[in-house]
Amino acid sequence: MAAVTGSAQTRFSRRTDGSSFRDWASEAFEAALLMATLDRADVDTLIVASESDFFTLQLNPAAILAGDLGLVGVATMRVEGGGASGQLAVHAAAQAIASGQARHVAVIGVDPSASQLPAATIKLLYGYSFDAWTDGMTGTSATALYALSYQAFAARIGLPDKCLDQIALQNRANAMLNPNAHLPRQHKMAEIADSPLIASPYRRLHCSPLSDGAAAIILSHPDALPGARGSAPRITGIGAASDHAQLGARQDTGTFTAKRKAMQRACQQAGIGPADIDVAEVYDAYAGAQLQALNVLGLSETLQADLDAQHFAPEGRLPINLSGGLLGQGAPVGATGVAQTATCALLLEGRYHPELQPKRPLRHALADTHGGVCTTAAVTLLSQADAK
Amino acid sequence: MISYELALPYSLEPGWLAPYVEALQKGRAMGRSCSKCGSVSFPPQRRCQCGSGEAQWVRLSGKASVLLRTHGSDGTFGLVQFEGATNKAVTRLEGFASEITDGHLIAPPSDVPALILAPSKSRSTP
């Protein structure tokens, strides 16, 4: 099983400091390499996750970053799967290690989703990440598609809209203790409910922000671990799955079927189940998406009661999105999944931001990411090195 | 800071979707009828859920009923069921009052194949 020897990310924010995505990628990579106690000459593979050339205006970004990072000569590739790009890159790296082809893989997720193009242009481009011929040409927004899917889910489960407010409130409160977070906020419930309506039931504060930033991890073969990193957490299960890109083609509009399959596949490989998970970073591009995810990941069968009982809060039985998630920490698309996995690895090692690090020992962590309205699902399970 | 504008004048060929796109530009609904199981998809799916790739193009009425709707600054959109189709569709809803559930496909303002539904008021009045 691949070990996560290095984990790092930049601040997620709207950058106004004159830096570029190449600077952020470099910053995250150098910090991950330092943590891994490796030299750049040890890295034999570079995998870059970046959602869209439209954002970076750089085709083949892995080749450019290899040059910037002093890695020219290594195997390079770019992995893309919409919002799931970062987690799919982690999967590609884990597979490269498992196959024996690679010893140390650098995974870098990066996107300038905030500062390089106007928000309206990004929104237009996101519309083409569903079915370009139907949703895209119709001008359907991501928020509208997510809203329709959530409506079907909420009606089936019987969830009131206040659950959306609870998710946004908790994730942004967690972000208050994360120095890398884009939107640390101590919201009042009324503030969320009074924010502008984007696509009912979603209001602005139920939506994740567009962010700039990068994240990096180093995955190492267990036979090639540096001496100081023998106890680094392992990636014990990866699972990916797909669904119809068109919401109307699905049997059940409100259920993230692909995520359920991805979770089952990851659990089967890891030999654990949802009840074994101690902490999770769950894909919350929208507040309701987190609720839909918790349901199909098997992490909650009584969502409203669990929310009311604060089960997913930092002191609860299963802390969710301690980082703040996409809602609080932010969403530079390609970086998202890499940052989720980095967060899980740091949590397992007890090296996360001190005020967010749970006091009790953690054995298993889950990173959950998807693209589209869960069209492309990618789940990664991480465990302590000495876990079964 | 480098200000840079990129214009991308695409020439998109719809390929197998050509009958759908051409009909939609006139506000008409062309679906795919599966040769094996008879399911009709609109918007069309290249391969039927039964697994068959053999299908014929069929003209649908373009009438649809709204199952779910969302509104806000992004516009008004609905998950709708087109008459004669097995699958559902997401369309823009134009001029739909909240009590209206029946509509029909209309031609988009440009030649872009947008799915736009206008209310069929006579059928919805109680």
From TrEMBL, chain A:
<dbReference type="InterPro" id="IPR055140">
    <property type="entry name" value="Thiolase_C_2"/>
</dbReference>
<dbReference type="InterPro" id="IPR020616">
    <property type="entry name" value="Thiolase_N"/>
</dbReference>
<dbReference type="InterPro" id="IPR016039">
    <property type="entry name" value="Thiolase-like"/>
</dbReference>
<dbReference type="Pfam" id="PF22691">
    <property type="entry name" value="Thiolase_C_1"/>
</dbReference>
<feature type="domain" description="Thiolase N-terminal">
    <location>
        <begin position="8"/>
        <end position="182"/>
    </location>
</feature>
<feature type="domain" description="Thiolase C-terminal">
    <location>
        <begin position="239"/>
        <end position="383"/>
    </location>
</feature>
<dbReference type="InterPro" id="IPR002155">
    <property type="entry name" value="Thiolase"/>
</dbReference>
<protein>
    <submittedName>
        <fullName>Thiolase family protein</fullName>
    </submittedName>
</protein>
<dbReference type="Pfam" id="PF00108">
    <property type="entry name" value="Thiolase_N"/>
</dbReference>
UniProtKB/TrEMBL annotation, chain B:
<protein>
    <submittedName>
        <fullName>Zinc ribbon domain-containing protein</fullName>
    </submittedName>
</protein>
<dbReference type="InterPro" id="IPR022002">
    <property type="entry name" value="ChsH2_Znr"/>
</dbReference>
<dbReference type="Pfam" id="PF12172">
    <property type="entry name" value="zf-ChsH2"/>
</dbReference>
<feature type="domain" description="ChsH2 rubredoxin-like zinc ribbon">
    <location>
        <begin position="22"/>
        <end position="53"/>
    </location>
</feature>
<dbReference type="InterPro" id="IPR012340">
    <property type="entry name" value="NA-bd_OB-fold"/>
</dbReference>
